[in-house]
User: Fold Elp3 domain-containing protein from Kibdelosporangium persicum.
Amino acid sequence: MRSSLVNKISIISHGLRFDLDMFESSAERYYENTYGYCITNRGAQRRHRLPQVLLLGDELVVSVLRRDNSPWTLRYDGDELNLYYDGEWRQSVGLPEALPFFGKTLTDGVRTDDVISAYGAVTPGFFLYPDCHYFDKGAQCRFCSLRAARSTIAKPLVTDFPRRRIMEATRHIQNSGWHIPMITNTTGTPVDDEDIRHTILEPLKAIHDACDPKIKMHLLTHPPQDFSIIEEFKRVGVSSIAFNIEIYDRKLFSSICPGKDRLYGYDKWWDALAYARDVFGDYQVYCGIIWGLEPVESSMEGMEDILDRRIGLATNVFHADPGTAMARRPQPSVADITALAEYEGKLYRKYPDAGTIYDVSMRNTIDWEVHNGYLE
Assistant:
């Protein structure tokens, strides 16, 4: 396994220790975390200017997760940013390049930084309808810090995406000179299908209409009650879609994702995935599961079941975010992450038509690394 991936797995498992204010006075321009959909770091404020990811080399990035008891330390030695493990130097790291479509002001006075989201280090997109009605019922997913983030550190971010605003922001993205392989859109969970049409479908159509030339659009969302909306997603320009079930084990799904279980249903979730696969095609529909929230064997079974259904696999590694019911749950061990990664590698060989959503390394998953042979 490449040393950069060894370090990434360990950092995802343990997090990093560093002073919150270590970046405040930095003159370097880099992509700073806007916390669009999770808090990740206890006590962090915008003024701390924390990067969303670190560059590990070998085209790998890793999430900046501040954890007080981590054996990993991040610190500046002069102008060089270094990683230490139990006091021993491991490697120098870089900061993600500042995104050229940030720092602009739209005609309605809103900053692009507060409209556009960015995933990993390079992939732009939007977080449409940044809320989830399961919180109102006390039935939110137990690992989710979306509402806590949006009511605190991410409060400056916009919540409304009228057509003019989103088209203008999309043109800033496309005219920035940045290589844009796709625009990726994440959503919260509206109350009903009519809200989906208004808060998600309409902005998606605006993004598609603004793109010239057209580019791929990925959508991560909650499946609708009326499956015909999945066809509407495709008609407005979505080229791939993900419905993340998160937990494969049925009983654990019920306890960890109570809203999804009671108000939508485990079996209906799989039905929605199958319907979407028939609309978008084999392996153009993705299902995400989270490593570390169920036994390793259950995650392995779930990964294989997903791929065997001709659905793409999307994994994430659990991180214990402040403001959630699982804030004190241990993150998965290096051994468990490594075992799951090795099994995922076998599955990619068994299902060669399956790929990853992104063609780049992402911050809290190693799907791309596994698919591209970094374990070998």
Observations:
- The first helix runs from residue 3 to 14.
- The chain has eleven helices and twelve strands.
- The chain has a mean pLDDT of 96.
- Residues 21 and 291 are 31 Å apart (CA to CA).
